Amino acid sequence: MGNLSGKVALVTGARRGIGRGIALELAREGADVAINDIENAAQAEAVATEIRALGQRSLVVMADVTQPDQVNAMIEQVVQGLGSLDILVNNAGVESIIPLLDITSEEWDRVTQINLKGEFLCAQAAARQMIAAGKGGAIINLGSVQAGMVLPGRTHYAPSKRAVEALSANLAVELAPYHIRVNCINPGLIDTDMTEWVMKNAAILPIVLDKIALKRAGLPSEIGHVVAFLASDKASYVTGQSLYVDGGFQIM
Fold it and tell me: Per-domain residue ranges for the chain?
C-alpha cells in the first residue's frame, strides 16, 4: 500500500520530462493518474500505459490549460473516468531564452499565459470540484529555480515562475477552510529533453554544474518524490510553501 492509495491525481503537461516523472511516482505510491497534455496524444498514452503496468488506473485528457472551457471539461472527464480528483499537479509550462530587447509582446503573452494563467485556471477548476466533493485535496504547482535567481534571457520567463509562488500562497489561504493544501515546487536543472541543450553541451554543462552545490543535475523522479510527499497525508500540516528542489542551485 502506497502513501497515495485510493487517491486520484491529474498531472498537466505529463507526456514527457518532469511531468512524466511525477505521474509515474504518484502511481508507484498508489494513485490513479490522469495524464494531460496539449499535443502528441500517442506519447501521453504511452505514459498512461506505463502507469497501468504499475497496477494503477490511468487515462489521457488532451486539453489546453489556458482555455477555461477545455480546463473545465478536463476536470469533468477525470472525475467521470476515475471517480474523483484528490490531487492536482500543475506541471504544464514553457520556457524560452530571449534577450530583453528581443522579447515580443506575443512571446511574453505565450509564456505567461501557459505558466501562470494555466496554473490558475486548473487550480480554480480543481478546487471547485474538491470543494463540491467535500474531501479536501492537494494542489502542487510547479515553478522554477529561476523564481529566486537571475539568469540571462529570462526576463519574461522568471516573472511568470515567481508569480507561481504568490499564486500558491494565496490559493493556500483561500482554500485552507476546505482542507485543500497548496504548495509550490521550484525545480532546478533536471535532466530531461527540455534541458538537453545544456546536458549535452561540453562547454556549458561544467559551468552550470559548478554553480550547483551537489554538482549534478536532478532526475524527474526526484521531483516526483517531493510531489508525492506533498500530495500525501504525511504532509498534512504543510501548505503555502515554496520548496526549491534544485541540488543547491539557488543558494550558490
Answer: 8-245
pLDDT (0 to 100) of residue 1: 58
Q: Which residues are catalytic?
A: 157
**Out of 3.40.50.720, 1.25.40.20, 3.40.50.2000, 2.60.120.340, which CATH number does the structure's domain 8-245 have?**
3.40.50.720
Q: Following DSSP, what letter does each residue of 174-229 receive, concatenated? A: HHGGGTEEEEEEEE-SB-SGGGHHHHT-TTTHHHHHHTSTTSS-B-HHHHHHHHHH
CA distance 246 to 188: 4
Which phi and psi angles does 66 have, rounded to 5°?
A: -90, 0
| pLDDT tens-digit readout, 76-125 | 999 999 999 999 999 999 999 999 999 999 999 999 999 999 999 999 99
